[in-house]
Task: structure prediction
Amino acid sequence: MRSKLFFVLLMMVNIVMGQKTLTLEDVMSGGNNWHNLRPENLYTAWWGNTPLETTADEVKELLTGNSLISVERFNEIAGEKVAFSGHNILLPYGDKTIAQVRTGSKRVQIDWKQGNVVWSQPIPDGAANQDFNLKSRHLAYTVKGNLYVLTEEGQTSQVSQDGSVDDSNDIVYGQSVHRDEFGISKGTFWSPDGQQLAFYRMDQSMVAGYPQVDISQRIAAVTMDKYPMAGETSHQVRVGIFNVASRRVNWLELIGEPDDYHTNISWAPDGKTLYIFELNRDQNDMRLMAYDTETGKVRKQLLQERHDKYVEPMNGLLFLPWDSSKAIMQSRRDGFNHLYLLDVNNGKLEQLTYGDFEVQEVVGFNTKAKCVLYLSNAMDPRTSCLFSRNLAKPKCTLIGAGEGVHSASLSEDGQQVIDRYSAPTLPRSINLYDTKTGKGKNLLTAKDPWQEQGYKIPEITSGSIKAADGQTDLYYRMVKPVDFDPTKKYPTVVYVYGGPHAHNVDASWHWCLRGWEAYMATKGYLLFILDNRGSEWRGREFEQVTFRQLGVEEMKDQMEGVKFLKSLPYVDANRMGVHGWSYGGFMTTSLMCTYPDAFKVGVAGGPVIDWKYYEVMYGERYMDTPQQNPEGYEKCSLLNKAKNLKGRLQIIFGYNDPTCVPQHTLSFLRACEDAGTQPDLFTYPGDGHNMFGRDQVHLHERITRYFDDYLK
Amino acid sequence: MRSKLFFVLLMMVNIVMGQKTLTLEDVMSGGNNWHNLRPENLYTAWWGNTPLETTADEVKELLTGNSLISVERFNEIAGEKVAFSGHNILLPYGDKTIAQVRTGSKRVQIDWKQGNVVWSQPIPDGAANQDFNLKSRHLAYTVKGNLYVLTEEGQTSQVSQDGSVDDSNDIVYGQSVHRDEFGISKGTFWSPDGQQLAFYRMDQSMVAGYPQVDISQRIAAVTMDKYPMAGETSHQVRVGIFNVASRRVNWLELIGEPDDYHTNISWAPDGKTLYIFELNRDQNDMRLMAYDTETGKVRKQLLQERHDKYVEPMNGLLFLPWDSSKAIMQSRRDGFNHLYLLDVNNGKLEQLTYGDFEVQEVVGFNTKAKCVLYLSNAMDPRTSCLFSRNLAKPKCTLIGAGEGVHSASLSEDGQQVIDRYSAPTLPRSINLYDTKTGKGKNLLTAKDPWQEQGYKIPEITSGSIKAADGQTDLYYRMVKPVDFDPTKKYPTVVYVYGGPHAHNVDASWHWCLRGWEAYMATKGYLLFILDNRGSEWRGREFEQVTFRQLGVEEMKDQMEGVKFLKSLPYVDANRMGVHGWSYGGFMTTSLMCTYPDAFKVGVAGGPVIDWKYYEVMYGERYMDTPQQNPEGYEKCSLLNKAKNLKGRLQIIFGYNDPTCVPQHTLSFLRACEDAGTQPDLFTYPGDGHNMFGRDQVHLHERITRYFDDYLK
Result:
């Protein structure tokens, strides 16, 4: 399969000789012309098994064009202006002509056939973390540290009593825990019938606060942001279940240590069992536990997964709609992330997908055909294509194009899918398929808006080189300067991320080009982006080579990229720069200080400088604790390498970065000052780990200027 | 007198054709060769009326060279190693052969004649703000917020009870108040006999804390530093008197408002009256009050001084040693700072000095001849020379050289003075004079160490131009590049401070050259430094022209300097830069944003950005409050001018600056980001308002590099 795609990999995007030159206003999402340069789009949704198109004015049937409900009509029925766009009108029930709108202050359901309001409820003041169950119409929400439930009928229950109501955040209920690691993004979980609510309680009274200073106040004010640093005391999480009818809470009798991780909460279809993937703080021993929701006691331990390095549960159980004793589970136990069918009665696993590729996402089920639909990069490591696995037959079938990067949205019964994708020379394609036959129709194929509007577009290619281990294929994207002349030598900038759970090169439009790269290409730079070992979708070994020594192998791979670049006649080896943000800021600073002769200029954003200042969950997974792995922490610490800095390095950070706290950058500055080296610095007060809107434009003007000043 | 000195003013420092090139290590006080390039020195002190020379090993009579006490002998007598250098051995009593040493943990007095320890006392643990009275040998000190007195006999009294013992600093005793403005530098004041202690109590519980973040901790920690910002709630000060014998405190019954200023505390010679210069918060109404130290009640109001703009008491009363009813007072009431003789019985004032110059310091009295000795710039605005005023005769007599910048130290009876000075071509001169006859001898004339060691020295000149008012003389220093060629055009850097209570140009060695300027001159820059209106020693009107609009007139004057520079054929008008720190950082940023075409490059250190973020005392004196003077604050705020930034401006600040808090710089960044302009930035974590030691070298390497990058 790989060899078949070889041509695609090296095939370059067509060079178009446009007239206009891209500016930052064109290529950055905060730019004032960015929206005009997005590929044409079609906004789709489902009403049960009916595909919909939403517009600013209405919701209509996609295939017939019949209007179902307009914004105007919704407001007429509601008797007030609550709907503002067709995109925000939900048709939540496939069997009912009900449309729902949520504003900042209320939820309204109307029946567009009957022309009446069927249900409406104000949202309580200050309600955060809203979790609305469409079936029961009960709403879970939090106010400060406490959790509340507002029933369909309007009855409010205060589920928790001891949540912090001051600004301490010592004890919080119903919020995401474990700093959003392990796939966790919320803290409330309704049972399928919407009558029970599982929720997290997090006690972080023992966690140190990181001082975040808000300079926008009349007098700068400080907030102590709970931030458990690697090796330091972490928070403690419990799980409770609130029964709406009895208004009582059952607490699960969790096993293990108080600072264990309780991840990927899943309900059994009958609501009698709750499944939790539990992990020790060392993250090398994971157990799938089943709890009796009535008694809170352990029903059974279904599975255990251990690994010398780490185990990282990222997905909960997905029960088969037609068999409540079986669920889809994802695991990297064979070295790649694959699908398994778990029998919850006996913990038996049946592997559903195999191979040196990874399942990226489960899309859902075709209930009638008894298929599970998923995205994987089986076609090529850079792709994400849609497949169907019939649970009865050990066969995976590609649905839609076998190229590009897809996302998919299933109809209620899973027999139809709206498939969206882009490919290196295809900005956007939207298709409607039958998930059984794979047949369907194209809904939209967008033209290249840059080309259409007459912009000069750089040549963008992708290819592979060998990693520093001499064996592994690594994929790169190369962006050549506009008006490229192979006899010239160009200043070259390596953009890098390099950390786990992310990649920079894939087979989406322009090989996943970042707009800034196109801008740099118009200014005469060559850009090179390589996904080193440690990055995502390449399997466990590929990722775990970095264990206990983050940055070391990643840098070796990036230096293979440098070697490759230096072999190209049009790359000016004396004018090489490097830029990256977050983990990429760590990589940039590491490269500048570890290989000081390789890069003349670097721009590092929001960098990790020493992993001891990073959070427990992510940090200890890859590095263990500073106590367990002192030599690893020392080896990777840029505080020890500050003295090696030779080229020009600008570090930029969000002044209120809650992720890579400012202590990283500031400690590095202190180390450079003590060592007599001279980095440069910039910061965005009020911004966090990333810059958005106009700040993003400002930031990239700044980054560009730095390369212009010292590399060009 | 002025015209006589005209030649001196324009006389240039000799150009010497050395071989060696100055480096930052040579010219910065934190540099590793700085100490080798200091002019030769002689360390002197007094033992009563006997002039002494101190060395690392001993204390000897200056004139005879007879050794009085060696470090070795001191320790032999003390029975322990407490003395480490002759410079730290004090001979406190002119009539006794007693030598005193203070270590970190004890005070020891020995009799070098008798060869015994006469008194010794350990210093209490954690004692801060130590105030030791030599007469009574009582020690006042503070621990956290409370004040203590340890008597000569070793008895400890806790003077205050409600001082803060946590880290809040809400209530503090015995510490400097009013943020060290009004000449205040301490919080305890012994009566002449050392048996009563006047002290400050400052309640700052109502003052907002500014969050200062310490990133050197394992997890960054915050301290809330009490910082009353202009227009915000200020602290409240009271004055108490502790009687050592009775161990009781009498509180003065202060008049006025709770946030008035109580400055320049002075004791009457008999210890029965305490004098305080009291000032309203608006700083335009000053009263000299006399309090009965027994009852705490007001004895009388001796004087009142009002001014439309402000009155700024900076000096206390100095009672005549031969007449306890009269004291020397300083006042700017006639437009210049002059000496007055105050009769404390009736408040009558007799003016002792007159003229368009300022008295800079009272040195002391010749008790026998009944003269007061003082420094003034009567000879030339840039000088500080020693004068004597016989109180019986209205005549001021110059003592010593009528050039240069002097400091003076009197013998106990004031009949002899050790006079130290330097002049533009004279690195150091030390002389011993009879204060009555003015006769004496030269003790040391230092040679130019730069010249001696064969360094290339730039040409350094001083001259004057007219201020923007067309009338006032402003003085400048110009440093020409080494190997100056008048046919070339040089990049030129204006160094600026520009604020009150400071000057940059005087007639000391090299016209008060800062080492960095010499370094820049070796790199081919021309430097120009102009003391604009608003700076010190030029009288009230000269200073107060800036009232309610800081920066405006100062910038106009600096632009006159620019005009002058542009008239010089060897100044490259297209390559002009500006650099300054603190008020000079404010000026630099103001100039870059107000006259964006004048300067291509600026480096601003620890700048004020908006006076509303500056402290009450200094800020409101010059700007009134933001409530009283909103248009002035708006006009001077650089937040409003951030949009004008055009050239390259680097702002550098101490990350823990307690004076110009980081909110200044960070708010400016935010304003620039919002306006789309691009300043540069650097910070020194752990440093305050200024950098010292190696950081100072690092800083100037950085500043230099910025000019090299963008101006050269």
Remarks:
- Chain B touches chain A at residues 208, 210-211, 213, 215-216, 218-222, 224, 227, 229, 232, 612, 655, 661-663, 666-667, 669-670, 673-674, 676, 678, 680-686, 694-695, 697-698, 701-702, 705, 709 (CB under 8 Å).
- The first strand of chain B starts at residue 44 and ends at 47.
